[in-house]
């Protein structure tokens, strides 16, 4: 073997060198591990301060406190005034109140996020679920849920309305509701009835007494207008302890315009359809002492034949005609425009009725060519009949659908 042999001292030195190098590598490796652990664990003075602040804020609960009244599980809750949602130390950002079938109760967040109030009453005997979220000044959210049930009323009322759903009526027909109980909270009831039209036109309601509410525009409806009415009376407290139980949508359409004007002095009626004169018809109106009302009246009922008895309108036994043809009601008090087969030569010549407007007819109403039949066949509920130049006063606005005799300001008041 060539080369110089390794002495014992040199070999020992090399062994020590290898051991020292191993320790150095181990120490370096350990240092790297410590640095890695420190980096992951946020070691060091700067890391500790920043880590404590960020971690604590992220896990700190929201300071916002949501309060819902009534309390969760409450029964027999009032339909108005009882539902109140608020936030302290924060602002409401979302509120949802749902009834049956997911129907949402409309409401608004007010007072800068401190409160939520419903925009309408609640339905009676109904379970509602509330979900509310609030956010504090640091942007952290807090939520609360609640369920409650409204009261089941012992005493109720409904509104009996006209015109009926799906009908077509004349330009003078208001939407009229007569309530089965007298109303002492008219604003609450009126707020629960919404009338919309297409094309849009302002519609206002007017109360006649405490049990009737009519809606109409300022002037006669425009032909072709579609009217939709939502009766949301369920849960409305119309008088102390008496609640509505009606939720219904009604739609009707306005037909062509027909306004017929009766001139008591000339004893003629001019029928105008969509601005054009269709016909002038001789008539007879109320004789002295029984004059026909002046003013605008609306056809509210149409009868091919009817009985007219003076006793029903306070005239005793002055007349009782069992087969009056082509009768159309103009007032609640008993004013009709109808066929008259007993009037002889009165039509166009003198006034002979007890207040009604008579048109020539035949007994049995079989002749379609006589004036009364002609007018009846061309009329509809909601058509307007105007009487002028009578010696009587103007008909009362609540006698039939005669509210058109009020000015718009009077109506809105």
UniProtKB/TrEMBL annotation:
Catalytic site: 338 (proton donor/acceptor), 356 (nucleophile)
A GO molecular function held by the record: acyltransferase activity
Pathway: Glycan biosynthesis; Cell wall biogenesis; peptidoglycan biosynthesis
A biological-process GO annotation: cell wall organization
Region (Disordered): 1-21
Compositional bias of kind Basic residues: 12-21
Pfam family, one: YkuD
Domain L,D-TPase catalytic: 258-388
One GO cellular component, as annotated: extracellular region
Alphabetical keyword list: Acyltransferase, Cell membrane, Cell shape, Cell wall biogenesis/degradation, Lipoprotein, Membrane, Palmitate, Peptidoglycan synthesis, Signal, Transferase
Protein name as annotated: L,D-TPase catalytic domain-containing protein
Native organism: Streptomyces silvensis
């Amino acid at each position: 073997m060539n080369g110089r042999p390794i002495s014992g001292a040199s070999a020992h030195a090399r062994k020590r060198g290898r051991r020292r190098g191993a320790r150095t590598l181990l120490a370096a490796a350990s240092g790297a591990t410590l640095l890695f652990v420190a980096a992951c664990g946020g070691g060091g003075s700067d890391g500790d301060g920043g880590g404590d602040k960020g971690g604590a804020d992220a896990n700190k609960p929201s300071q916002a406190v949501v309060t819902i009244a009534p309390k969760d599980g409450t029964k027999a809750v009032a339909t108005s005034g009882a539902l109140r949602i608020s936030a302290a130390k924060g602002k409401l950002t979302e509120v949802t109140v749902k009834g049956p079938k997911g129907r949402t109760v409309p409401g608004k967040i007010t007072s800068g996020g401190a409160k939520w109030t419903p925009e309408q009453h609640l339905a009676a005997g109904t379970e509602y679920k509330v979900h509310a979220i609030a956010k504090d000044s640091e942007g952290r959210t807090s939520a609360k849920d609640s369920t409650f049930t409204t009261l089941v009323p012992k005493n109720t009322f409904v509104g009996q309305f006209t015109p009926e759903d799906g009908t077509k009526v004349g330009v003078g027909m208001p939407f009229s509701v007569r309530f089965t109980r007298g109303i002492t909270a008219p604003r609450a009831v009126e707020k629960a009835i919404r009338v919309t039209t297409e094309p849009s036109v302002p519609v206002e309601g007017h109360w006649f007494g405490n049990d009737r509410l009519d809606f109409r525009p300022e002037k006669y409806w425009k032909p072709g207008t579609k009217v939709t009415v939502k009766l949301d009376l369920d849960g409305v407290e119309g008088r102390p302890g008496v609640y509505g139980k009606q939720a219904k949508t009604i739609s009707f359409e306005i037909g062509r315009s027909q306004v017929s004007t009766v001139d008591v002095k000339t004893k003629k009626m001019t029928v105008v359809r969509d601005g054009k004169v269709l016909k002038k018809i001789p008539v007879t109106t109320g004789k002295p002492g029984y004059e026909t009302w002046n003013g605008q009246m609306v056809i509210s009922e149409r009868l091919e034949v009817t009985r007219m008895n003076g006793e029903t309108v306070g005239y005793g036994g002055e007349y009782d005609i069992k087969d009056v043809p082509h009768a159309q009601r103009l007032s609640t008090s008993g004013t009709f425009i109808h066929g008259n087969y007993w009037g002889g030569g009165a039509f166009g010549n003198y006034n002979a009725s007890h207040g009604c407007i008579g048109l020539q007819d035949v007994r049995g109403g079989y002749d379609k060519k006589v004036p009364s039949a002609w007018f009846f066949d061309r009329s509809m509920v909601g058509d307007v009949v105007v009487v002028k130049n009578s010696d009587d006063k103007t008909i009362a606005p609540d006698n039939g659908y005669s509210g058109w005799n009020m000015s718009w300001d009077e109506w809105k008041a």
